[in-house]
C-alpha cells in the first residue's frame, strides 16, 4: 500500500551509511556507563530488601532492552505483594527510604498513568524511574530485546531515530510528542513491512514464551537465535531505511485510518480498534498499538497541534536525506 506516489531514494543514498553508523556507534553506552548503572541498581536493591525482603527488582526500558544510549535513564520495576495497601502509599514509603539512604532528588510522581518514584543519582548523573508491579513493561522490554537480536538494522535505525527525536524536540510526552518506546515500535513495524521483510511478527508465530500479567497472556516466539538470518534477503542499508522510514511517516501513512501494530505485523484500521472518535483525552490522531496492552495507543498524547509539528519534522528529515549534500549534519541540528 503506497500513498503519495512511488518515490525512490536518491541513487547515492548508501554513501551516507558510514556516517550514520558512526553516529550510532557514538550513541552506544560505554562500559563505564554500564558498570555505573549496575552499581546504582545494586545499591537500590540493598535499600529495598531491607524494608521488603520478598520484593524483586526488574530492569526494564532501554537499559534492559539493548536500545539504550548514553542519554537513557534507568527504568526499574519493583515486583511486590501490596496486600491491602495501595501503590501510592508504597511509592511514598519507597521515596522516604531512598531519601534516608542518601539518594538524591527523590520525588514520588503519583498522578501519572504509571505512578513512579523518580530520583537522580548524583554520583553517576543517572536519572532513575521506579514503578511498582508494572510487569507489562517488563514483558514488552523482553519483546523489544528479542526483536533487536534478529537483525542489527533495528538497533541502528531505532537509536538514530531516538537521537533525532530528542534533538528535534519531538520526544517529550508531557508536551504531546512521542515516547522513546513509541519510536521503537514504529521502527519494528516499519521493518516488518519492508519487502523483503527485515523482521518477522513474533506474536503471530507459535509461542515459546508466555508471561501472564493481570490475567492477560503475553505470548510469542522467543527463540530468536533461529531467526538470525531472517532479514538477509533484504539488502537495504541503514541510510536507505532511515530515509524510507521518514518518507513513510511523512507521506505514506494514512493518519485518518491506519493503526500500526507490531502484534499483527501489519497495518490495521482505527475502525476495528474503535479508535475513531476521541474518548476522554485520547484523541487517536496517530495510532500506535501497544503489543500486549492492546487497548493502549502510544500516540494518545498527540494533539492537533503536535501532530502537525511531528509530521513537519518527518517531512524535513525525509527532504534532508533526499536532497542535502551533508545530511548527517543537518538532520540532527538541535531544534
Ligand atoms: P530512553 O530512556 O529514552 O532510552 O527510552 P526507553 O526505551 O527506556 O523508553 P521510555 O523511557 O520511553 O519507556 C520505558 C519503558 O516503559 C518502555 O520500554 C516500555 O516498556 C514501558 N512503557 C509502557 N507503556 C508506556 C507508555 O505509554 N509510555 C512510555 N513512555 N513507556 C511505556
Ligand atoms: Mg528509559
Automatic annotation (TrEMBL):
Q: Which GO terms describe its molecular function?
A: metal ion binding; RNA uridylyltransferase activity
Q: List each copy of the Poly(A) RNA polymerase mitochondrial-like central palm domain by range.
A: 21-149
Determine if Magnesium is one of this entry's keywords: yes
**Chemical reaction(s) catalysed:** RNA(n) + UTP = RNA(n)-3'-uridine ribonucleotide + diphosphate
Compartments, record wording: Cytoplasm
Membrane-spanning regions, if any?
A: none
Give the similarity note: Belongs to the DNA polymerase type-B-like family.
Provide the protein name: RNA uridylyltransferase
Species name: Lolium multiflorum (Italian ryegrass)
